[in-house]
Specification:
Elements lengths: L5 E7 L7 H14 L4 E7 L11 H4 L2 E3 L5 E3 L1 H9 L8 E3 H13 L10 H17 L4 E6 L9 H14 L4 E8 L12 H12 L6 E6 L5 H11 L6 E5 L7 H7 L2 H8 L11 H11 L3 E9 L14 H14 L1 E9 L5 H5 L3 E4 L8 H13 L4 E4 L1 H13 L5 E3 L8 E6 L1 H8 L8 E9 L4 H5 L4 H5 L5 H4 L8 E8 L1 E3 L4 H6 L3 E6 L7 E6 L6 E4 L14 H11 L2
Parallel strand pairs: 1-6, 1-7, 2-5, 2-6, 7-8, 8-9, 10-11, 10-12, 12-13, 13-21, 14-15
Antiparallel strand pairs: 3-4, 15-18, 16-17, 16-19, 19-20, 20-21
Helix pairs in contact: 1-3, 1-9, 4-5, 5-6, 11-12, 12-21, 14-15
Bound molecules: glutamine.
Length: 561
């Protein structure tokens, strides 16, 4: 096939937070349905190099890529919709741009030239965009923030430059605006959209498509108004009202024939008839479930200003929705604060999930919740910190060991969860950014275990993922492995695994590093209906059509009670 290089640039107008990421992911999904290969790039105009050191309460969840990047959560939407690994380089920040320019300047690579905003900054941006898009027919580029922000000017300048260099038919702009309905007027107002179009035009960019977000659909009168005042044909003004289910967005866009319109702008034919049958079926199952389960997520990011807790756990939320869609079950989530958990709250739950986390705040409450799940045989799923604590809890309350994790108790005599020696060295040097065990690792799964049964559908897909040698680990023939993403510093201490195993914990999966002892990846308790925990973050590999096996098993086990 000819090497195609087409870009769709998604820009926000009016306000942020109206679903630009989901719109970008949905547009990508639509192009896939028309037979094109698609990738997606997120531009974050902040100066942080990446999202790794951002507080979850500052910027929502940190998304982890297969290749070990800690990046913006929008990339999670891209992976969930496009179902391809999106590498870390697809998240471009102002910090990265300046850092590489300055580094190059220090190495004398500009040969005495004055290094300036123009052309060096837009050139670096273009280079990174084109590298990220290499090998794909179409790249979706989402520019963070809103048109008019100072910090996204260089990026707008860069994409305008790409339009000039590659030709207009290869770069298409989609502006996402918001149309408010002020209470006292009760009418949908188009003025902010008109102003956003004007601001964009100041950067030399004329939007090809305007996606109009709003609480209600946009009527023809308003579409015409935008046509008249902004000189954009009304057929390219698309209504994007609020929806109940995220995964309806591409279906709604298609109702407005967005795919056809974008293909026309990019001068591309449709390569195949889109087939939305399976996608639509799953969306319907989310909207009209047959049963309902109540899951408690024992978290600690509650009540920090007005911040919505859900955003810190967005991928867990989505993974539960995916599993629910598979089983036609509504998953009702109770966000419970681990600082103040009570038995009464726990007794109302059908399932208990302890997610990942850092630091000692709220640890005791999480241990109380795990103990409750274990003793009352309530289905339990532990993720990362959730697995570490399930081991601490078992060691303490079943095996009567005075156990702890050195993360909370550095001088504990029985460190069942501990930091590996090489990681300790990094911490001593205060190297917190990017020093964790990050990204995808292969985990061998023990035959006969529940985890093995749950992952049956994934072995083929996971074993085909190409991994660097240290992520793949030492090759052990004849044992099947899965690939899951990681983000942690501590591990179940290999020194205590034999004791824990003898005491009844089944470690059903492990990573075998090229050097060093096996690292425990999965643990389960066979006497319970469903008590499974993992050192990985399976929520980062879940999608609507390929739900995470542990989440499906968890919800299914509840249904069987
Ligand atoms: N704090 C733990 C560690 O660093 C767990 C991290 C997590 O849950 N993501 O190992």
């Amino acid at each position: 096939m000819s090497s195609m290089e087409k870009y769709i640039v998604i820009i926000g107008g009016v306000i942020s937070g109206v679903g630009k990421g989901v719109a970008a992911a949905s547009i990508g999904k639509i192009f896939k349905e028309y037979g094109y290969s698609v990738t997606a790039i997120k531009i974050d105009p902040y100066i942080n190099y990446d999202a790794g050191t951002l507080r979850p309460t500052e910027h929502g969840e940190v998304w982890v890529t297969y290749d070990g990047g800690e990046i913006d959560q929008d990339l999670g939407n891209y992976e969930r919709f496009l179902e391809i690994p999106i590498p870390r380089r697809n998240n471009i920040t102002t910090g990265q741009i300046y850092s590489s320019i300055i580094e190059r300047e220090r190495r004398g690579k500009y040969l005495g030239e004055t290094v300036q905003f123009i052309p060096h900054v837009p050139d670096e941006i273009k280079k990174r965009i084109r590298e990220a898009g290499k090998g794909y027919d179409i790249s979706i580029i989402e520019i963070g923030g809103t048109v008019g922000d100072y910090e996204n000017i260089p990026f707008l300048f860069a994409v305008k430059g790409m339009e000039r260099e590659l030709g207009k038919e290869n770069v298409c702009y989609v502006l996402i605006t918001f149309l408010p309905v002020p209470d006292h007027i009760g009418e949908m107002k188009t003025k902010p959209t008109q102003q956003a179009i004007k601001l964009l035009q100041e950067n030399g960019i004329i939007p090809d498509i305007i996606l109009c977000r709003g609480h209600k659909p946009l009527d023809m009168i308003r579409k015409k108004k935008i046509e008249t005042y902004a000189n954009i044909k009304s057929e390219y003004v698309i209504s994007a009202p609020d929806i109940q289910v995220l995964y309806e967005v591409p279906l709604n866009f298609e109702k407005e024939k967005l795919g056809d319109k974008l293909l026309e702008k990019l001068e591309l034919p449709s390569r195949k008839m889109p087939d939305w049958k399976e996608w639509r079926r799953l969306v319907t199952r989310i909207k009209k479930p047959k049963g309902k389960v109540r899951i408690g997520i024992i978290g600690k990011y509650l009540k920090i200003g007005d911040y919505s807790l859900k955003d810190s756990y967005i991928s867990i939320n989505e993974a539960l929705i995916h599993a629910g869609a598979r089983l036609a079950t509504e998953v009702d989530i109770e966000w419970l604060n681990s600082d103040s958990i009570t038995s009464k709250q726990l007794s109302r739950l059908d399932g208990i999930l302890v997610p990942g986390g850092f630091g000692e705040k709220g640890i005791d409450g999480k241990i109380v919740a795990i103990r409750y799940a274990r003793e009352h045989d309530i289905p339990f799923l532990g993720l990362c910190l959730g697995m570490q604590l399930s081991v601490v809890e078992y060691a303490r309350n079943v095996l009567s060991m005075d156990a702890d994790s050195t993360e909370f108790n550095p001088h504990t005599k029985i460190p069942v969860v501990d930091i590996l020696p090489y990681q300790r060295e990094l911490l001593k040097e205060d190297r917190y950014g990017g020093t964790m065990r990050l990204g995808a690792y292969a985990a061998y799964i023990k035959e006969g275990s529940l985890v093995h049964k749950l992952y049956e559908r994934r072995f083929k897909r996971d074993m085909a993922i190409s991994l660097e040698p240290e992520r793949r680990g030492k090759v052990i023939p004849d044992i099947k492995y899965v690939v899951e993403k990681h983000r942690h510093r501590y591990e179940i201490s290999p020194d205590f695994v034999p004791t824990l195993e003898k005491g009844g914990m089944l470690f059903s999966g492990f990573h075998q590093p090229l050097n060093g002892p096996r690292l425990m990846e999965f643990v389960e308790l066979s006497d319970n209906r469903f008590f499974v925990a993992t050192q990985a973050h399976p929520e980062f590999t879940s999608s609507l059509t390929f739900p995470a096996p542990l989440f499906v098993g968890f919800i299914e086990a509840i249904g069987k009670s």
